[in-house]
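Recall from the previous chapter that SMILES is a line notation for molecules. Here it describes NAP.
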Amino acid sequence: MKAIIYRDNGGPDVLRLVERDRPTPGPGAVRVRVAVSGVNPTDWQARSGVGHQKRFPEITPHHDGAGVIDAVGAGVDAGRVGQRVWLFMAAAGRPTGTAAELTIVPADQAVPLPDEVSFDAGASLGVPALTAHRALTVAEDGPPRLHPGALAGRTVLAAGGAGAVGHAVIQLARWAGATVITTVSGPRKAKLATAAGAHHVINYRAADPAAAIRAVAPDGVDIITEVALGANLALDLAVLRTRGTVATYANEGGQPVELNVGQNMVLNTRLQFLVLYTAGRQARTAAVEDVTAAVSDGALPVGEEHGLPLVRFPLDRTADAHRAVQTGTVGKVLVDCAERDSTLPRASGPGSGPLWTPTA
Ligand SMILES: NC(=O)c1ccc[n+]([C@@H]2O[C@H](COP(=O)([O-])OP(=O)(O)OC[C@H]3O[C@@H](n4cnc5c(N)ncnc54)[C@H](OP(=O)(O)O)[C@@H]3O)[C@@H](O)[C@H]2O)c1
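With both inputs in hand, we obtain:
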């Protein structure tokens, strides 16, 4: 089978396409024929060595993907062979990610994908959707879980609504019944955030974004999902309601964070940091269950018309896929791991789209 590997940390050029033996799933694991692999910033960060320690001599990158189970290890229901699945955290603490024709994951990290949902959508879930779920479920007043109505009466501000995580925040928050405000840097991203389902889209580079947010949320915002805390903290505190939550999953731009303790005391701010790797099994299980329910409801579609353009590469151009993510390409970067004429069962419903769209 073909696989992408790297042996040393470094730039995208450390990624190589190689032939490897078909892997055999051990106890509790499944083997998946990967149709589409999803690329996230954490994948190139791990490859480069930034903030990640390399633990294996040879690594196949990428946590996210979608495909079909073609073999199971001991203790796994043999009836799962042939099941369409989406994969998450495939390369976390393991050397075999999804940038390969076949991968091995623990059975609970291969989640059933409804027939009508495309592999593209399945490969786009993992890191973005699970992060978005965590960010929306850490507020003091809850909800601890997401379902239709869980965020009814609440206002969510998704910073950077045209990013992969921001997009998932908008979709999950809408599904859960929130009023959703989002910030973007310009008109193209505003169009995408609107297509994703945001009720109000604010240009954070415009004159007074706080006033624009207060105009649509006079009582303040309940939950802010933050991608650039240093750049946005002043704006966040200007629009947060008393006892509101700022759930921070990144600090894009790297601007330092300076806290005004008194201001935060008066607001009773909850400042919650989060990273998927250490969120814990309970939070992860809850996120997978709720995201699965949202997917089944058709709430997490992808593609330009749904606010998340797909930018795709063949497996042998995975290095270019990494360059695309690293340079901030708008949309979701995907790698096709199976040939276009593959026998893998595709989605049956609308939105499955062509396997190969040469947009990259
Ligand atoms: N903690 C975790 O577990 C976790 C999980 C997933 C991702 N992350 C991190 O989260 C970040 C985003 O990931 P992603 O996959 O969503 O990347 P992405 O698709 O490239 O999106 C990044 C978004 O951030 C927005 N942004 C940058 N500066 C901003 C600002 N000052 N205000 C508002 N928006 C701003 C950009 O929009 P504009 O160009 O319009 O500014 C862009 O849409 C990365 O740093 C990633 O490593 C962390």
